[in-house]
Amino acid sequence: MELQELLKNDNKVYVEVNTNHKADGTIYPRSFVWEDGHLYKIDKVIDVRRAASTKAGGVGLRYTVRIQNKDVFMFLEETGGVDRWFMERK
Fold first, then answer.
1. Amino acid 84: pLDDT
2. Which SS3 state, helix, strand or coil, does residue 19 take?
3. Residue 1: inside a domain, yes or no?
4. Band of pLDDT at residue 1, cut at 50, 70 and 90
5. Can you give the pLDDT at residue 8?
């Protein structure tokens, strides 16, 4: 089995995220594109804290966001100087 196969995680979905960057350096996600191409608007950012994803692995900033009256986690993963957004697949 190749290394890429071993590192694959079916619970982690990397997503394209539109963000607002504040003058104080904080980043707030405004919308994201799911793997099927659907664009979801984020209604509210509820909480931001450093945390790990227990379902998908990875660590970084965990954003609790409200989308269509449902609270979900988004993660800004910081790995080797590259920041990527991911979400946990249900």
1. 92
2. strand
3. no
4. very low
5. 53
Structural domain contains residue 4? no
Contacts by 28-36 with C-beta closer than 8 Å and gap 24+?
29/63, 29/65, 29/74, 29/85, 32/74, 32/85, 32/87, 34/87
Backbone φ and ψ of 84, nearest 5°: -135, 145
Question: Which of 49 and 55 is assigned the larger pLDDT?
Answer: 49
In terms of residue numbers, what domain contains 56?
A: 11-88
Q: Rounded mean pLDDT of 70-89?
A: 90
CA dist 22 to 26, 29, 44, 50, 68, Å?
5, 11, 16, 19, 24
In 3-state terms, what secondary structure has residue 21? strand
81 is a domain residue:
yes
